[in-house]
Amino acid sequence: MPILKSINPYDPSRIVNYPQVTDLNLMVLLGRANTAFHSYKSLSFAERSIRMNKVASILLDRRREFAELITREMGKPIKEAEAEVKKCAWVCEFYASRAATFLEDRYIETEAEESKVIYQPLGPLLAIMPWNFPFWQVFRFAAPALMAGNTALLKHASNVQGCALAIEEIFIQAGYEKGAFQNLAISSDRVGLVIASEYVKAVTLTGSEAAGVAVASEAGRHLKKCVLELGGNNSFVVLNDANQELALNIALPARLQNGGQSCIAAKRFIIESWIAEDFVPQLVKRVGQLVVGDPMEADTQMGPLSSVKQAREVEKQVKDSVEKGARLIIGGHRDGAFYQPTVVAGIKPGMPLFDEEVFGPVFAIVEADSAEHALELSNLSNYGLGMQLFTQSESMVNRFIEEAEEGAVFINGMVKSDPRLPFGGIKRSGYGRELSEEGIKEFVNIKTIWID
Question: In this structure, is the dihedral angle defined by the CA atoms of residues 135, 140, 143 and 148, taken in order, positive or negative?
Answer without folding.
Answer: negative
